[in-house]
Design a protein that fits this description.
Length: about 325
């Protein structure tokens, strides 16, 4: 199933999600409307809310609360992006200036806080302690992941294991919540909750692995973000970690220096060549594909429906994308 077919399948639900998102964005404070609209309407893929919707439909959930869940997940994600672009000093996202570049860091952080706290107001409307608990834990782990990553920045000795922990915390955990909570809302049997939670976790991991790969392989125009941002930050992502283990001595020194000094952008072409030469990019792609396959395998206990097929297709699309 391609993305157009998946969008068609979820059109009614996603329209309701969008309506709720815009309603919840409203505030008497003009800057919140302005910046909030800029970021929410900025060509994002709406992947995480789409996952909540598909997960709910895949188990034939009959209520309407999945729409609110999807909006909550998108608010948390958007808040985290506003904060992330400040922390990462990024100037380009989704092919446009980042909110921090356009409105400044303070406005970005504070409107991020607005979205984040609004998501908690919406959670109370779901009136479910189990849902609240998962989301409270998820957002806390998200913050933990970012701090752990900060500690690893400029550290060339970061291991693959630590890297995998970071990407679980900062990315996969929210994907996991998006799909698991659809099953919680539906009061689904434990094995379906487990299946959908695992699917989200593996998919999120595959997604971030691909994200980190694209930082070295994509074209800025297509990606809508600046290539080499990770290197400029001295962020030890998997391609670099692999190359420092298996590359030749010259590559190791080059990459180690780039991570330590966070000035690798001058050597970016040389580093990309070194990553190709030792198979680091191939390795990362393989690992992303393996995680996507684990996501697909997790769904085996669910009934065969178009919605399950859509979830399977999304796993393939997540690791075969250009942006
Ligand atoms: C993008 O990663 C960022 C995240 C996945 C999470 C960001 C989370 C925070 C800043 C902390 C938590 C904040 C709240 C409000 C709960 P990236 O920088 O690797 O990807 P990019 O290339 O898209 O910037
Ligand atoms: Mg970033
Ligand atoms: Mg970041």
């Amino acid at each position: 199933m391609d993305l157009t077919a998946i969008r068609q399948l979820t059109d009614t639900d996603m329209q309701a999600v969008n309506q709720l998102i815009y309603k919840q964005l409203e505030s008497d404070v003009a800057l919140i409307n302005q910046l909030g609209f800029y970021i929410i309407n900025g060509g994002g893929k709406r992947l995480r809310p789409l996952l909540s919707i598909l997960a709910a439909r895949a188990i034939d959930y009959q209520g309407q609360q999945h729409v609110k869940l999807a909006a909550i997940i998108e608010f948390i994600h958007t808040a985290s992006l506003l904060h992330d672009d400040v922390v990462d000093e990024s100037t380009l996202r989704r092919g446009r200036e980042t909110a921090n570049a356009l409105f400044g860091n303070s406005a970005s952080v504070l409107v991020g806080d607005f979205l984040y706290t609004r998501s908690f107001q919406m959670m109370t409307e779901l009136d479910s302690m189990p849902v609240l608990k998962v989301l409270a834990d998820t957002t806390n782990v998200l913050a933990e992941g970012e701090v752990l990553q900060l500690m690893n920045c400029n550290d060339p000795d970061t291991t693959e294991e630590t890297y995998m922990r970071v990407i679980y915390c900062k990315t996969a955990k929210l994907f996991e919540a998006a799909t698991l909570l659809a099953a919680v809302l539906a009061d689904a049997p434990p094995e379906w909750q487990q299946a959908l939670g695992d699917y989200g976790k593996f998919l999120g991991t595959a997604f971030q692995l691909t994200d980190d790969l694209l930082d070295y392989t994509a074209e800025t125009d297509e990606l809508g973000k600046n290539i080499g941002d990770d290197l400029a930050e001295g962020k030890p992502t998997l391609p670099l970690i692999y190359a420092m283990e298996y590359g030749d001595e010259q590559a190791k020194t080059l990459i180690k220096t780039a991570i330590e000094k966070a000035d690798g952008t001058q050597a970016i072409n040389e580093i990309i060549a070194a990553l190709h030469a030792c198979g680091a990019l191939e390795y990362t792609q393989k690992k992303a594909e393996q995680e996507a396959q684990k996501a697909i395998d997790s769904l085996s206990v669910l009934p065969d429906t178009d919605y399950k097929q859509a979830l399977i297709s999304l796993a393939h699309l997540s690791v075969n994308r250009k942006n």
